[in-house]
Each structure stands twice: as structure tokens, then as C-alpha cells.
From TrEMBL:
The protein's Enzyme Commission number: 7.1.1.2
GO molecular function: NADH dehydrogenase (ubiquinone) activity
Catalyzed reaction equations: a ubiquinone + NADH + 5 H(+)(in) = a ubiquinol + NAD(+) + 4 H(+)(out)
Entry annotated with the keyword Transport: yes
One of the record's GO cellular component terms: mitochondrial membrane
Membrane-crossing residue ranges in chain numbering: 47-71, 83-105, 140-159
Name of this protein: NADH-ubiquinone oxidoreductase chain 6
Location(s), subcellular: Mitochondrion membrane
Highest rank taxon of the organism: Eukaryota
Family: Belongs to the complex I subunit 6 family.
Principal location class: mitochondrion
Length: 170
């Protein structure tokens, strides 16, 4: 499962460079965030951190979608054939590299040590959720919440409903 998620992550990374419109880049970024959420959820004991990551990125993407759709004009979505052939070749090389190795990509050395300790999962769940709101990281969370709220207010102020969209329609 982890190998498939790594391949999807690599495909999204390659596709991101071929996108020219901001909305298609946002879609690829959202798919990549969902993929990273699944990878981090599989590596940890719970999905809370990955769920919080996805919700924060989704909120930021909604704000960016409102801002970009009010500013940019509609552009056609065109893919270059030569670029796609090069991407497919890189993808095949990457798939061969992943499936030819005998490495277990889902666990690194620290995760194996943690699982060997056989700590009670309820205790681990409580400790991991407490770290999010403890002293060093609670300031980062509060700053992140304030930044997202300020960005939301700025985008709402820029895109005034009475004035219509910011781009000119002829």
C-alpha cells in the first residue's frame, strides 16, 4: 500500500510542473495533500494529525480558490504530448526502482523501535494529542489560526460582493 501511495505522490509531483493554470495547480496540490495525509496516517498510530493537516490545507486551498478565481481569466487546460511521454518514462523508472528494492518504505528505524516497545495504544494516543497543544507548539497553532483568519478577512475585503469579480468581462 505504501509503495502505491509513493508512486501516486511521484506522479502528482511530476504533473504539478506541467500545470499552467492556478486552479489545476490547486487541484494537484489538494490531491498531493490527501496522499500525504494517507501516508502519515499509515505511519502513525492514529489519523488525528493527518486529519488536522488535511483540514488546514483544505481551508487554505478554499481561500486560494476564491482569490484566484476572482483574479485570473479562464484558460484552456492543454497538456504537451512530449512532456507527457517524458513523464511516463520517468514514472516507469521510478516504479522499477521502488519495486526492485527490498526496502520496507512504511517503517523507518525509529518506528520499528517504537513498535518494539509495545506501549499501550491509549497512552500513546493521549501523549500524541497532548503534544499538539503543549507550550512550544500551542503558539504555532494560535499563529496559524490567526493567519488563516486574517487571510480570510483580506480575501473577503478584496472580493467585495457589491462590486462583482475583480476581472473584467467583455
Amino acid at each position: 500500500m505504501m509503495k502505491i501511495l509513493m508512486i501516486i505522490s511521484f506522479i502528482n509531483t511530476i504533473l504539478f510542473y506541467s500545470m499552467k493554470t492556478p486552479l489545476s495547480m490547486g487541484l494537484i496540490l489538494l490531491i498531493q495533500t490527501l496522499n500525504i495525509t494517507l501516508i502519515s496516517g499509515k505511519m502513525s498510530l492514529n489519523f488525528w494529525f493527518s486529519y488536522i493537516l488535511f483540514l488546514i490545507m483544505l481551508g487554505g486551498m478554499l481561500i486560494l480558490f476564491i482569490y484566484v478565481s476572482s483574479l485570473s481569466s479562464n484558460q484552456k487546460f492543454i497538456l504537451n504530448k512530449n512532456y507527457m511521454i517524458m513523464n511516463l518514462m520517468l514514472l516507469l523508472i521510478f516504479i522499477l526502482m521502488i519495486f526492485s528494492t527490498k526496502l520496507n518504505l512504511s517503517m523507518n528505524l525509529e518506528m520499528k523501535k517504537l513498535m518494539d516497545l509495545e506501549i499501550d495504544q491509549n497512552f500513546m494516543l493521549k501523549m500524541s494529542l497532548n503534544k499538539l497543544y503543549n507550550n512550544p507548539t500551542n503558539q504555532i497553532m494560535i499563529m496559524l489560526m490567526n493567519y488563516l483568519l486574517l487571510t480570510l478577512f483580506i480575501v473577503v475585503k478584496i472580493t467585495n460582493i457589491n462590486m462583482g469579480s475583480l476581472r473584467k468581462s467583455f
